[in-house]
Amino acid sequence: MGERFLKSIRLLAECMQGYERLSGEYVRRSGLTHAQFDIIATLGNTPGMSYKELGDKTLITKGTLTGVIERLEQKGLVERQRNDCDKRSFFVRLTKEGERTFCTVFPEVIGNSGKVFADFSDDDFARLEKTLSELKNVIMAGQTESPSTRDCD
Amino acid sequence: MGERFLKSIRLLAECMQGYERLSGEYVRRSGLTHAQFDIIATLGNTPGMSYKELGDKTLITKGTLTGVIERLEQKGLVERQRNDCDKRSFFVRLTKEGERTFCTVFPEVIGNSGKVFADFSDDDFARLEKTLSELKNVIMAGQTESPSTRDCD
DNA sequence: TATTGTTATACTCTATAACTATA
DNA sequence: TATAGTTATAGAGTATAACAATA
């Protein structure tokens, strides 16, 4: 009760919420759902990854993922390819059009929600990055570890 | 492209995601959905509020809110009361059982996800709070303003 | 036996818009 | 006219668990 971290957690939640309110508008405008945008943003600038990895990064469980990827595939934004070295697994990657979408929608969402930082100085950013990095490390350390050092690439 | 705030936004998103992964487990365990927990947490330690206010605070749109509140009402966790001074409006508040739920589930969720802060010093908290407060202010300033100074209480 | 992804179920959330009743 | 909340609709996400193929 009244423990110190409550205030930080609440602030974090408020930042999360505020940021989602800001960016959500632009995500919706792109015709993508939140989950779909999440996938596109996660696949952007990567050679692709497995369902497993995508699920881990986006918090979308595998059952749901099948549906989300399916819809993105129907939109022609992602494509799947059997993983040669583990035939149970797929490799999901952005198609050319998916990359175009990533390159237009992502900056738009990020850019518009990023407007609020207009008055931030380099110093402000440095401090924010440092603090958020530490926070991230602390939060990630609390997750149930699953390093999963792959040995197939 | 490569703008400075991208890193901060990504860190914030990662913190959000990590935190949701941490807390989500405990929220689910409580038998509440994310949206329901959001409502309970928002109503906790308040005398109650209108649908409008609840919607503003939780990002749940009014159409959805009707359903969420309905389910919480069926569970006996919240109750509604006509607002005397504006008969279009309801006052939603936690029931006794809702308060019990808030008092058990909220600290459990918060407490468990808060474990990760075990090693934080007072200084760490102070810095985190300061930075997050500033971030929140910046983010909130970017929202479409809706002060809504009520005059009926 | 464990893991990757699929399928099925039942429910909840979501956006949107038309609607009512109050203001 | 504008606002608070309701209803309806169609689609999407969610948890969960049983399942197939592969490891």
Question: If you had to describe this structure to a student in words, what would you say it looks like?
Answer:
- 2 copies of one chain form a homodimer.
- Chain A has helices spanning 4-29, 34-43, 51-58, 62-74, 96-114, 122-141; strands at 78-82, 90-94.
- With 153 residues, the first copy, chain A, is mainly alpha-helical.
- Chain A has a single domain (15-140), classed as Arc Repressor Mutant, subunit A (Orthogonal Bundle).
- A two-stranded antiparallel sheet of chain A has the order 1-2.
- In chain A, β1 (78-82) and β2 form a beta hairpin.
- In chain A, α1 (4-29) packs across α5.
- The first copy, chain A, is globular.
- Chains A and B meet through α1, α5 and α6 of A and α1, α5 and α6 of B.
- The first copy, chain A, binds a DNA duplex (23 and 23 nucleotides) through residues 28, 33-36, 50-52, 60-68, 71, 83, 86-90.
Summarize this entry quickly:
Chain A has 153 residues and is mainly α. Chain A contains 6 helices and 2 strands; from the N terminus they run H-H-H-H-E-E-H-H. Chain A binds a DNA duplex (23 and 23 nucleotides) through residues 28, 33-36, 50-52, 60-68, 71, 83, 86-90.
CATH domain fold name of chain A: Arc Repressor Mutant, subunit A
Helix content of chain A: 55-70%
End-to-end separation of chain A:
49 Å
Question: Into how many domains do the coordinates of chain A divide?
Answer: 1
Quaternary state of this entry equals: homodimer
Major protein interface: A-B, 51 and 51 residues
SS-based structural class of chain A? mainly alpha
Described by strand count, sense and barrel closure, the largest sheet of chain A is: 2 strands, antiparallel
CATH class identity of chain A: Mainly Alpha
Mean pLDDT of chain A comes to 87
Number of strands of chain A: 2
Indicate the CATH architecture of chain A. Orthogonal Bundle
Counting DSSP H or I runs of 4 or more residues, the number of helices of chain A is 6
**Low-pLDDT ranges of chain A:** 145-153
Any idea what the radius of gyration of chain A is? 18 Å
* Pattern of helices and strands of chain A: HHHHEEHH
Order of strands in the sheet with the most strands of chain A?
1-2
Instruction: Estimate what percentage of residues of chain A fall within beta strands.
Output: 5-15%
Overall spatial form of chain A: globular
Q: CATH H level of chain A: which superfamily? A: Winged helix-like DNA-binding domain superfamily/Winged helix DNA-binding domain
